[in-house]
Amino acid sequence: MEHAAGTTPRVQKTDQEWRAQLSPEEYAVLRQAATERPFTGEYTDTKTTGAYECRACGAELFRSDTKFESHCGWPSFFDPADTDAVILREDRTLGMVRVEVLCATCHSHLGHVFEGEGYDTPTDQRYCINSVSLRLVPSEG
After folding, report:
1. Is there a contact between 61 and 80 (Cβ–Cβ < 8 Å)?
2. Which domains, from first to last, does the chain contain?
3. Is 128 a catalytic residue?
4. pLDDT digits 0-9 by tens, 18-74
5. pTM
6. Which of 17, 58, 89, 115 could lock 13 by a disulfide, CB 3.0 to 4.6 Å apart?
């Protein structure tokens, strides 16, 4: 698999190491770019305040204050926690042109980003992310 923009992931593991660390569902999504079924993910409707980390490497990716209800069946965010947290890469699978979202730290698949759908968000973007790619760390207090 070619790496986006020629960058090398900071966290690199062998396929065997990823398989040992991740559940079969996590592995399929994070390492093979599968998609969880809509409306089945743990975080689809979560309103808990906190940070969403990459389930593969623990890097902070999104924060709850950018999460919004898109009713698309997957957790949706209008912006990553940091512009360097994710890598965007053209995805031409399934006969469509989409923009894949990858964790910048380990290059695991997170989901896709869509623009111009008319959601009332500051960025007009919808980062449509698989719950199984994320781990929510609730804020204290």
Report:
1. yes
2. 13-138 (2.170.150.20)
3. yes
4. 999 999 999 999 999 999 999 999 999 999 999 999 999 999 999 999 999 999 999
5. 0.92
6. 17
